[in-house]
Amino acid sequence: MAKTKITVALIHGLTIGETLHREVVLREATAGDVLDAQAESERLMMVPNHDGGFEPMLVVSPSRVGIEVLRRQIVSVGDISGPIELAVLKRLNPEDLNLLLAKSEQLDGAAVSQTQDGATQRGRDDSDRSAADKADVGDRDTHRVE
Question: Partner of 37 for a Cys bridge, out of 42, 68, 76, 109, CB 3.0 to 4.6 A?
Fold first, then answer.
């Protein structure tokens, strides 16, 4: 299955080198993007424990995960190939960053919806009935046990 891609026109643009780029191409996220983003977003922190002391724990920042997924979804900024480094992404105008995050969410939402629709329909045809139908389904006995 080909990955869905969209082109987003930036409001303010992003300067890389000496060129102002105004278009970003995004693709839908993969499971690998999410897993890599989660791993990249982990930080070892000392957290309080029940004994009044502290213990090390890996803590994941949800906002950082979102940014890490986004930077992996960027196919290109102008003629620069992605993924884009975090330092470059940080130079975006907040309005452009919010635009990219919104478009990324729309793109992923459409992919999830398409996957759910496919999973719902998998192996079914018009003759399938809900198990909740009052009509006899399969070889259930009077106690609705097969």
Answer: 68
**Cβ atoms < 10 Å from Cβ of 64:** 16
Query: For the whole model, what pTM was predicted?
Result: 0.68
Q: Which amino acid is at 101?
A: L
Q: Which residues pair with 48 in a beta bridge?
A: 54
Taking a C-beta distance cutoff of 8 angstroms, is the pair 24, 77 a contact?
yes
Distance CA 71, CA 110 (A): 19
Q: What is the DSSP string of 59-98?
A: EE-HHHHHHHHHHHHEEEETTEESSPPHHHHTTS-HHHHH
With CA atoms as reference, report the closest residue to 87 among 14, 10, 23.
14
pLDDT, tens only, 83-126: 999 999 999 999 999 999 999 998 877 554 444 444 445 555 55
| Strand ranges (E), the chain | 5-16, 19-27, 42-48, 54-60, 74-77, 80-81
Laid out side by side, the sheet with 74-77 consists of 5-16, 19-27, 74-77, 80-81
| Mean per-residue pLDDT of the chain | 81
